[in-house]
Write a structure and sequence with these properties.
This is EcsC family protein. The protein is mostly helical. Helices cover 78% and strands 0% of the residues.
Length: 281
């Protein structure tokens, strides 16, 4: 098992190296420069107000998802499947008695559904009018935030206390960023883990705000995506906007794939660090 843990850590380090490399295309760099210029021209008070609203929105949405019956119902299949591997599992935290590969498999089964939800939701956006297009960004936030919460549970971390809630929100936020910015957030998340050294506190004692200029950049790119969808919606194949649907479905699918990949690596890394910390005590 120790050898397998070393292999997984090496996988995560290789992935981390890819994050550290700035491999943006010329188009992406142009969009980033345009976004930075637009953000710099916004009054600081307006930015601060927007960031505060965004943080509040995420916190309330997280709490709503946590308290929903749908979220509660998802625990049952996770625990039932885990029981087939270890009959002594009764609670989410008990999942950490399984091997990390078993947990990864359970998490991948659960999050594959979210990738499909994202795919179909992106395709439907191109078929509807402005009403469906206006729901694209909120729908993506719900799908991807719920995917992060699901992955946390599959690795044995409940997200219903202040520390786990803020951690899952920071993981969600970091996963949306381009690689060169995502790497910085990854290092901050690792610093948080090293600070607590395997001991999970109930309250979060770090910076509780999530939003910064990157949020505006993310929203700008979402608006650009919707603009492409609306443009290609006019190009019909047998009365169906095939190209617009392909753009929406493909973009949303890739976005959710990136979110789930980042969350998988974070919670795998955290579990390994906790396991090694316990062995060294």
């Amino acid at each position: 098992m120790h050898k397998r843990e070393d292999d997984i850590l090496e996988e995560i380090r290789n992935w981390e190296q890819i994050l550290a490399e700035d491999n943006r295309s010329d188009f992406s760099r142009t969009v980033d420069k345009w976004s930075d210029l637009m953000i710099s021209e916004m009054p600081e008070t307006l930015r601060e107000r927007f960031f505060a609203k965004y943080d509040s929105y995420l916190l309330h949405l997280h709490s709503f998802i946590q308290s929903s019956q749908t979220h509660q119902d998802t625990k049952r299949p996770i625990l039932l499947y885990a029981k087939t591997l270890n009959p002594n599992i009764n609670h989410i935290h008990d999942l950490q008695t399984l091997t990390i590969d078993q947990l990864h498999y359970i998490a991948d089964i659960q999050t594959s559904k979210h990738r499909l939800y994202s795919f179909f939701q992106g395709g439907l956006t191109s078929l509807g009018g402005l009403s469906l297009a206006s729901l694209d960004i909120p729908s993506q936030v719900v799908i991807n935030l719920r995917a992060v919460q699901m992955i946390a549970m599959c690795y044995g971390f409940e997200t219903n206390n202040p520390f786990e809630m803020m951690t899952s929100l920071k993981v969600y936020y970091a996963s949306l960023l381009p690689n060169h910015l995502k790497y910085e957030q990854w290092l901050l998340l690792k610093d948080d883990l090293n600070m607590h050294k395997g001991d999970t506190p109930y309250f979060y004692d770090g910076v509780e705000s999530v939003a910064d200029n990157s949020v505006i950049e993310f929203l700008v790119k979402q608006i650009i995506k919707l603009s492409f969808i609306m443009f290609f919606k006019r190009k019909l194949t047998k009365g169906i906007p095939v190209l617009g649907a392909a753009i929406g479905a493909g973009y949303n699918y890739q976005m959710t794939k990136k979110v789930t990949e980042f969350a998988h690596n974070y919670y795998r890394y955290r579990l390994l660090m906790n396991s090694r910390g316990e062995r060294n005590e």
